[in-house]
Amino acid sequence: MQQVQALPPQFFQGLKIQSTLGEGHDAKVLLALETKGNEKKEYALKCQAQKIQDTAINLFNEIQILIHIKHPHIIELFGYSQDFTCLVLQYCPYGTLVQLIKSSPFPVCIAASLMYQVTLALTYMHEQGFTHGDLKLSNVLIDSQYNIKLCDFGFARWNGKMAIEKQTIAGSEGYTAPEIWTSNPNYIKSDLFSVAVIFFILITGHPPFESNNPDNHDPWWNLIKNKQWDTYWKDIRSNLDQECKNLFVQMFSIQPEERLSANHLNQWFKLKQTTQENLIQEIKKRLTEM
């Protein structure tokens, strides 16, 4: 594997900013064009949005993870600034799963195909000792070949530890596993809980609950936590088949050890998925409707 290194200031000076791809509290993502003779290459620059400590830590942590992992379904890091405030990333022109789900939920076979790719990446990560820590719709990108790419590794860990530890709760509310709110979370099984949340949203069009923060007393989460599944399925008025219901019962367990591993979940999605041709056709159709 070619080592990813810090890039000199001249590299960044030679880039032409095309547009802003996204902007959040921590970072701004810019589309940048590099021109070398007749060759042109596009990058996504993820840059520090505010000069505050947590933002700097997120970017530094992300760099330390991405320089050690390489997988067909993980965003590629080409380099970074010498002060660690900007990442030079692969550009994925078709956005995130957030955009694709806006019009309507996916058929199970299409959603399973997407999650098959997600869990291929997670199986690789978990086997190498890495966890993502913030899996959600907006952190799953679609590249130029309509393949899935995991991104945003600011909460990722290697063997349970961040390069620089932070005091904030890892992940995004509504996707986090219940043990994240405790002092000793299982980060691998927490990733898989988040995968199940994403799959649930893809096939129903809405989240399984709003929050499992103990302070919030979310009614749907209380039903899940207390295993009142008959009442839960009636409340959400879903038409999920029994196999999917059984999967969610297992994956949303408050006991992390009861959840499937990334590899076992990958095999479940493999059996449910459609062909790559059908998946690409569905993605293209939804992109034209946006």
TrEMBL record:
Gene Ontology cellular-component terms for this entry are: cytoplasm
Which Gene3D superfamilies does this UniProt record tie to the protein? Answer: Transferase(Phosphotransferase) domain 1 (1.10.510.10)
The UniProt entry, under InterPro entries, shows:
Atg1-like (IPR045269), Kinase-like_dom_sf (IPR011009), Prot_kinase_dom (IPR000719), Ser/Thr_kinase_AS (IPR008271)
What GO molecular function terms would the record report? ATP binding; protein serine/threonine kinase activity
Q: Which PANTHER family match?
A: SERINE/THREONINE-PROTEIN KINASE UNC-51-RELATED, SERINE_THREONINE-PROTEIN KINASE ATG1C
Domain named Protein kinase: residues:
15-269
UniProt protein name: Protein kinase domain-containing protein
Superkingdom of origin: Eukaryota
**A biological process term (GO) from this entry:** regulation of autophagy
Species of provenance: Paramecium tetraurelia
